[in-house]
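Q: Structure tokens for this one, please.
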Amino acid sequence: MTTIKRIVSLVLTLSLLLGLVAIAQADAATKSISVAIPSDPSFTVDAIGDSNGLTTSLIREGLTRQGQGGTLTLGLAESYEHNEDYTEWTFHLRDSAYQDGTPVIADDFVWAIGAQLDGTVEVSYPDFLFEIKNARGIVRGTATVDDLGVKAIDDKTVVFEMEYPVTYFPQLITHPMHFGYSRASAEKIGFAEIGLEADAFISNGPYYLESWVHDDKLVFKKNPYYWNAENVAIDEIIVYVIPDESTRVNLFLNGELDLVDFDASRLSAITAAGFEPLTYNNGRTTYVSFNLQSVGVKNQKIRQALSAAIDREALVAGVVKNGSTPADGFVPVGLAGDDTRTFRDIVGTTLNYPYDEARAKELFQEGLAEEGISASDITVNFLTSNATENATVSAAIQQIWQDTFGITVNVDVLDSASYRTKRTNYEYDACFLSWGADWNDATNFLSGYEQTEDHNPSQYYSEAFNEAYLRGVYNTDVTARVTDLGESEAILLEDAAIIPLYYTSQYYATSSRLVGTERRAVIPYLDFYFADVK
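A: Here is the predicted structure, written as tokens:
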């Protein structure tokens, strides 16, 4: 080989080596984490199908967002203001863009909210939008989308008109149903196709969905056009769909996942592997809801007796065993009250029928006498899902009620889809439920029991409840409104339309390299926005 050929060969070899080094350095610089969720998510415009809020929070952002340590912070809005009586809110948008570089504009919010109300896209809970002027009327056909109280003044200014004073509106709009979506993109994709595949959704959030193998794996990459991209530390988030908890835990212990949620039965395996078990208040209340039209539970005293028969302390310590705490009301601990105190701090306990077996039996006999029946005449069909905790707790309650009162309790354990169908159709006497905070305000828990609401799990009606609830809703004094809402909660529980059981907690663990993960009592319950890897 000539000297010239040797030189050329060395240069080519050196170039190749430098290229490989550059690739290796680039790979090393990419910050990636892996997590798992139990079921395939949904990326519809209303985002209700994303049960824990994680995947939606990666690709979508609203005008405000949940910050660190339970605080509220700005999202796509750089500022906002309201009028004197809180019936109008004006938001000023930042410069930010979707994953294709298209600017986020005020009309995105006008279109997306209107589309959820007029039937353009399907939604699960349209009442989440009913604070907005004429939203209820659009759903019921007495108003059109042109009447909607959401207006784009210009590309950077959107104004919301309220049906009544809404002091908590910045908290409410952290829920995805209040997020914007590109009208042009929706029309291009097709309204019925939005969110069905990775390329059928456009992201305005910190990440975009690069790929999606259904029921298997989703890959999220950082959105370079997002307004705060330079402060989003993690470049790639891989989300596996793994229904089985034991499989998720094993993958975590093998170093293949960076975070895992688990129940109490996995605690010893987590600690034995050297990981610190952590818990967080996930803003949920587990409770029993009654179908008040059912013969066996239509009597108020019988329902009160069923509540007083349950030893909640023993239930969470001996059956649930995950750090949950006995409920003393419906609205869970940790939800906002006034500027310095939580709702529960202000209201205190509203559960008038805690565990008292003697009182339970006395109330039960009074209820039987009022109905002119005996215990043998009562059969309670108790609906629950097949999630491990739900089925186990329901079986415990079944035993308590049968042993205490001598009644028949049939537990109907169903898969989640069948459970939802029966629950929606009121095919039960009692139903095991858990409700989590969609936004950081007590209205998220209490609004469903107002007489005018379309979704009322107990078929409950009370003028006293409505009066107290609406007084709280209209009250612009922050502390006084909480007191009013607390009064409505007390009425609901005195009527025993529902009986709270416990405020839930969740065990989880993280890898040693993952820092800054937010776990909170409001969607998104799991948030990597502020996270980083060592």
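A few notes: The domain at 281-506 is CATH 3.10.105.10 (Dipeptide-binding Protein; domain 3). The first helix runs from residue 3 to 29.
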